[in-house]
Structures are given as structure tokens and as C-alpha cells.
Amino acid sequence: MGLKAIYSDRNLRNEVFKILKGIVPENVDAGNGRPGMDLWKILVLGTLRLNCNWDYDKLHNIANNHKKVREFLGHSIFEFDQIYALQTIKDNISLFTPQVLDEINQVVVKAGHRLFREDDNVQLKGRCDSFVVETDVHYPTDINLLLDAIRKVLFLCGQLCNELGITEWRQYRHIFRKIKKQFNIVRKLKRSTSKDAIKKAERQQLIVDAHCQYVDWV
After folding, report:
1. Which residue among 7, 30, 70, 162 sits deepest, i.e. has the most Cβ atoms within 10 Å of its Cβ?
2. Do 93 and 59 contact (CB within 8 A), yes or no?
3. Exposed, middle or buried: residue 214 (CB in 10 Å: 0-12, 13-18, 19+)?
4. What is the dihedral sign for C-alpha 166, 78, 42, 20?
């Protein structure tokens, strides 16, 4: 369930806002001082910062220039003059910690369960394709499938981030080439045919280390 679902469900939204009210300092009076940020804006920008691992400069730029994000914040395309100061973002979004996000996640997950389970006494069940889990995949099919999987993940995430203006994934092609280089090393390694036990053990360890490096990079 995303931000849209939270906003559309009044009861869920109130539960989330109740959590967010707890992070507001006690000495803050919403009726005095300069305009700050309401709870919804803190939720949207705080969630983006933590999930995308953005610094405040990046978040400041996105909040003021990204059309879709500004729509989530409640701004129309005509509200060009309503911008967020960097210090305002720092002062408010710094209150939105990973612990707060985790607490909100628990509320959202329970709300999601209620959509599919009217009776709390009924066990919630899910379905998935377990074919891959149950199949004993042998070498070299296993390393080929792993390369295909990480290629698809990297390119989908990289291309999506390009469309959204997120720069953290700009090196996804370079990362894939690095992984594929290690894949080629692993693919070409052969077991030792030597009768010397020491040489065979050294060769076997080389193969194990190369595979571990491949898996770690993936």
C-alpha cells in the first residue's frame, strides 16, 4: 500500500497522523511563527528521504521541482511560488526517523491485511510460485540464472530512476559489467585434474573464492 492508499483511507490516515504527532516537539505551537510543514508533507518527504537514501539537498530539489512529488504534497501545477526552504526541510524531516517509519509500516501492513481478511480469527494465507525454490538447479545453470536475474533488476531500477530523475543508480550499466566480468571468470574456471592433493585443494579454493565474490557482488 502506498501513500495514495493512506491518503484515501481516513481511518488509516488518522492512525498515521497520530504517530506523526508524537514526533512534533512539545514546545512547538502550530499557530505561531513562520509557516512550517503539515504532517502529510512530513510523511511524504520523510518516506522519500529514507527509502531513496537522499541527502537534504537532493530532497530540497525534488520537493521544489519534481511535478509528481509536488502533486503528492498537495500542490497544483500553478503553485510555482510555493517552495520549501532547505532549513525548513531539515528542521521537519529530521524528525522522521527510521523508527517512526517502521512504526507507520506496522500500521499500514495491518490495514492491508484487513482488506483481505474480514475476520481476525481467520489465518491470512498467500500464494506464490515455488517452482524455482523446489528445483535443484545445477552448475552452470545456477550462475546463468543469477546473472539474468541481476541484469533485469539493475536495468529496470536504473531506467526507472532515470525517468524519475534519481541519480543514485546512474552507474547501473557499469555495475552490471563488473558483475558480468566476474561471471566470465567463474564460468571459465575448471576443476584441477592434478593427482597432487595440495594442488587440487588450492584449485578448489580458488573456485570457491571466485563464486563467493560473484555472489557477493550480485
Report:
1. 70
2. yes
3. buried
4. negative
**Claim to verify: residue 22 and residue 85 sit in the same structural domain:** yes
Reading the block at residue 158, the C-alpha cell is: 536504473
Task: Quote the CA–CA distance of 72 and 100 in Å, as a whole number.
Answer: 20
User: Over the chain (218 residues), what is each successive 10-residue block's mean pLDDT?
Assistant: 81 92 76 70 92 90 90 82 89 91 90 74 68 60 83 89 84 89 84 79 84 83
Do 204 and 110 fall within a single domain? no
53 assigned to some structural domain? yes
d(CA 79, CA 86): 18
Distance CA 15, CA 6 (A): 10
Question: In which domain, by residue range, is 96 found?
Answer: 3-116
The alpha-helical segments, DSSP class H, found in the chain are 3-8, 10-21, 39-52, 56-65, 67-73, 86-93, 98-116, 131-134, 141-164, 172-188, 197-217
CB 111 within 8 A of CB 16: no
